[in-house]
Design a protein that fits this description.
heterodimer, A: alpha/beta, six-stranded mixed β-sheet, four-stranded antiparallel β-sheet, 10 strands, 23% strand, globular, disordered N terminus, B: alpha+beta, 4 strands, elongated
Chain lengths: 290, 334
Amino acid sequence: MRTPASPAASQGPGGPDASSPHPEATSVIELRGATFGYGEQAVVTDVDLTIRAGEVVLVLGPNGSGKSTIAKGLFGLTDLLAGEVDLFGMPRAAFRDFPRLGYVPQRHTLASSVTVTVEEVVSSGRLSRQSWLGVTTRTDRVKIARAMELVGLAERARVDVGALSGGQQRRVLIARALAGEPDVLVMDEPTAGVDIASQHGLVEVLARLVAEGLTLVVVTHELEAFADLVTRVVVVDGGRIAFDGTPDAFVAAGPGLVHDHDWHHHLESPDAGRSVMPAEGPLGRGGERG
Amino acid sequence: MSEMLSIDFMQRAMVAALLVGLAAPLVGVFLVQRRLALIGDGMGHVALAGVAVGVWSGQSPVWTALIGAVIAAVIVEMIRTSGSAHGDVALAIIFYGGIAASVVIIGKSPHGTPASLTAYLFGAITTVTAGDLWVFGVLTVVILLVVALLRWRLFAVASDEEYARSAGLPVLALNLALAILTAVTVVVSMRIVGLLLISALMIVPNAAAQLIGRSFRASLVWAVAIGVVCAVGGVVVSYAADTPSGGTIVLLAIGVFVVAAVGSSVRTRVGRAARAGHAQAEGHGHEHGPGCGHEAIRHGDHLDYLHDGHHHAPHGAHYDEHAEPAKPADRAGR
């Protein structure tokens, strides 16, 4: 039996009883019959999804399946056309505790027309916890420094973000979300366009955060990178949820889960089954980075 | 100099220049960040219609310009927010409508001819009244206070609007605040810099400062310093050389930009030449080799390992940073 209070303990191999990894933990995100889209145009329909504290949920699916639309819908960035969204037990429209739900948007570059340091970007993630008088307190500074430290960018605090590599820029965006001290972190394609070595670095950082109690929702089409962490897989296809279960069940379901077979070609490769299994070792594996 | 400072209108012109030099770059940096460098120009067009209404009705043109510019700011922001495909054309219609209306209204005015708009368009040091100065002073204080209070929120919205929304920041209100700040800055500048040139003083000092400062904060300090020096300096030169103040101020600012650009380019070349000799990868604890997890790329006579976006080449007991080899396609294109 898993121990919801300690997310680290949930990283063992998924047993056959693990249909719901954290059945008794509080739900942090709850979607009931939710339809998201833009204006009148629905992109994903009738989504039922409950995410509980301590889970690491991968939202997989081919490009254009609507997985990002769901993630954005949690933040009101896409329109809720039908159904309900509850965040921390409260309807989204009434939810005001914004810092608890961190967001790492899909961005390919942080380069802009002005010079901005890593520290300045990360500090903007603290704004939702600050008063309108805009005073940066000692606590704020500590949290901002800690966020940069967590992603391994403390020494680059004063570097122009435009001069960083793609992988480092993703880590800046993660640190920005972490500066607000979220309980849940929703990440949209954090590994897209990042080389394998940097992906390992990212996952290492995330493993550390999950061990500290963070709930993680990762929208991605690259599941290998997160194989060591994931406790649950949700597959979105054609605007609907096509699968929701443990990584084991996902592997067992095999190809044919979605209409577009190309996106999970890795499942058909000989070592694919192994790659989506939760790690047997302690957290923080995959530390082969230099 | 002392003779110049003893003249009443010059004293007023210097104070007005100081106010514009402070305010314009402070607001302009967020426009640069959002790639809206030309929006101030459009608001100047609409403010000119306000000036014409003031001249025609015998009211203070500063107040009528302020009303015109603020209304334009709100409409412009609403059009922008709507994301309409025709937004660009709608903005053009508003801006050109403003300038067309101003010429027609002034032509029908009992006190003015289109020629009397010249001072408002390009700035003139002799035109600042004591009453204007009070209005500019109060408006500048408001601009400074609002920017001081909202700067990191304006920064967050300008750098990543989607993220700002996800974090619960009032994005629409902040965008409106920036639009109104822009309108107010346009009006503060109308005597000294002129409504056709104010946009330059919002943008050019920031463009120069981006080449000098190493952070958003430092660049902003540089931009304000450049703005103040160019505005006050421009008024002095304008008096001494008998040139229109707006044009003189903007040419000075562009001069500073060119100097900063040349300096920055030289600095980059010198730095690159120094690094090209031999640059070691910092704090490299990892040993690259076959199967180390990093992609190996042939680079001339050796292999570079692609490490977190950097090209690391083994050299004795350490690794060198190598530049990314030119892609064959790049070479073929030349």
